[in-house]
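STRUCTURE:
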């Protein structure tokens, strides 16, 4: 049974289970804490905007359009067919002059 003892104690020799020294992982890979990874970043899905952001963007767009229309209307004179213009004329307003008692545009 001398030959059987050698076969039965296969766990006694741990070199059968250990990796050779040249195939051990290098410490450079293990000690990479705090360093940025140089690997290729994973594909990120494009960020979608939330309903609140959509609502805010739509509100801003409508405000810009309204401001543009207001500025365009300010550049032109009120037509004489406008009811407000006719009321001013009945109260003594003449186009090209200032409003007010003294004609200075102030209120009194």
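SEQUENCE:
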């Amino acid at each position: 049974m001398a030959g059987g003892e050698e076969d039965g104690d296969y766990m006694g020799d741990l070199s059968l289970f250990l990796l050779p020294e040249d195939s051990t992982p290098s410490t450079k890979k293990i000690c990479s804490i705090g360093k940025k990874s140089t690997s290729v970043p994973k594909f990120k899905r494009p960020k979608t905007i939330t309903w609140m952001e959509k609502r805010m963007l739509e509100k801003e767009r409508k405000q810009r359009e309204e401001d543009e229309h207001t500025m365009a209307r300010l550049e032109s004179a009120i037509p004489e067919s406008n009811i407000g213009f006719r009321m001013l004329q009945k109260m003594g307003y003449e186009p090209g002059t200032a409003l007010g008692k003294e004609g200075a545009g102030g209120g009194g």
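REMARK: The helical segments are 2-8, 27-30, 51-75, 83-90.
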